[in-house]
Design a protein that fits this description.
about 350 residues, four-stranded antiparallel beta sheet, about 0% helix, about 55% strand, disordered N terminus
Length: about 350
């Protein structure tokens, strides 16, 4: 089985958790910069590549490397690394040649590059590899759990998935298996629940090791399992999708060809090749009439009709007419759209605040 701990999503919204006002990536003459919510350019388009802001930083291309950029347009360049990750808990993993360490938001190397592999901090600990074994360090680079596992992942709810002798379980912060290694795959906890895989299906387990839902749900191609949103998670049985709650109860029976996340009380579902929206009781609120549909954000959802993209409100009224060649969901009050291969941003009233 080839599954990763990271999930993939269509039209993924870049999370901006900084205290600074949100910034939005723009393109001008094949270079990238950023605007604010009013459409004013605050970082000139000067980079050959750039990513959305996340936890206060973007990453932009400089000297053929992706370098962190803060919201004031300053590059973190005390040292040029082969790779710089995202900041989590105020530290970002970095790679220099073949070794890994961590930098702080000022670009200072606070944990020397020394590990063969390194992952993001979570719950104050980071999973790292020395040789062929994985363990965990704290922010002082001290071993909290000595390298001893074949693989491991992030701590959450004081537990972390770990692989030993071919099976996955969950270890505590002392490195002992609090939930015995007996599963095909374990994913990190989200709150007090975690998804696990056995015999090619997935189920749910709680932090005490009690199986809430026996493995029975299909494994999706994108690997996104056990992802709760608005208290519900989409599940599939025999290729049909429904929804469970955090107790593992089937609230909406599997009946849809595909299903998206709940947001603002509604979720996009597919029937007979068309998309509409249901509420948490499974009632159809917006009839299935769209060619594609996204989740609600800022009171609007991205939909495609007659090959063009627009936005509907929670009552199903088309608030922004489907006139765009491409578009992404609203994020912090603006949505990226494309018209004749030119980038633009519109606000929730459908007014273009910036255009390439």
């Amino acid at each position: 089985m080839n599954m990763d701990f990271q999930t993939i999503g269509h039209h993924k919204i870049g999370e901006q958790l900084s205290t600074h006002p949100p910034l939005f990536k723009i393109r001008e003459e094949h270079k990238y910069g950023f605007i604010n919510i009013d459409g004013k350019v605050v970082i000139e388009a000067q980079y050959l590549d750039a990513e959305d802001f996340y936890n206060g930083f973007s990453r932009v291309q400089f000297n053929n490397k992706m370098i962190p950029l803060d919201s004031l347009g300053r590059l973190l360049m005390k040292r040029l690394y082969n790779f710089v990750g995202y900041f989590e808990e105020d530290l970002a993993r970095v790679q220099l040649v073949n070794l890994w360490g961590y930098i702080d938001p000022r670009g200072s190397e606070v944990i020397e590059v020394q590990f063969d592999e390194a992952f993001d901090f979570s719950d104050g600990l980071a999973c790292v590899r020395k040789g062929d074994r994985f363990g965990f360090i704290d922010k002082a680079a001290q071993w909290v759990i000595e390298p001893q596992f074949d693989k491991a992942s992030a701590f959450s709810a004081a537990l972390a998935p770990a692989l030993s002798d071919g099976f996955w379980g969950y270890i505590d912060r002392e490195g002992h298996f609090a939930i015995a290694a007996r599963f095909e795959l374990c994913l990190p906890f989200k709150g007090q629940l975690a998804a696990f895989v056995d015999d090619g299906f997935w189920g749910l387990i709680d932090s005490k090791g009690q199986i809430l839902v026996e493995p029975q749900f299909d494994l999706p191609e994108d690997g996104a399992i056990g992802e709760f949103s608005d208290g519900l998670a989409a599940v599939a049985i025999n290729g049909r999708y429904g929804y469970i709650n955090q107790k593992g109860e089937m609230l909406i029976e599997p009946q849809y060809t595909s299903a998206g996340d709940f947001s603002e009380g509604l979720a996009p579902v597919e029937r007979k090749g068309r998309y509409g929206y249901v509420n948490k009781s499974g009632e159809t609120i917006i009839e299935a009439r769209f060619e594609e549909a996204g989740v609600f954000s800022n009171g609007l959802a991205l939909v495609r009709q007659n090959g063009r993209w627009g936005f509907v409100d929670t009552a199903g009224q088309m608030r922004i007419a489907p006139t765009f060649d491409d578009a992404a969901s609203f994020n912090n009050g603006l949505a990226w759209v494309s018209i004749d291969d030119r980038w633009a941003y519109c606000n929730t009233e459908g007014i273009i605040v910036w255009q390439e």
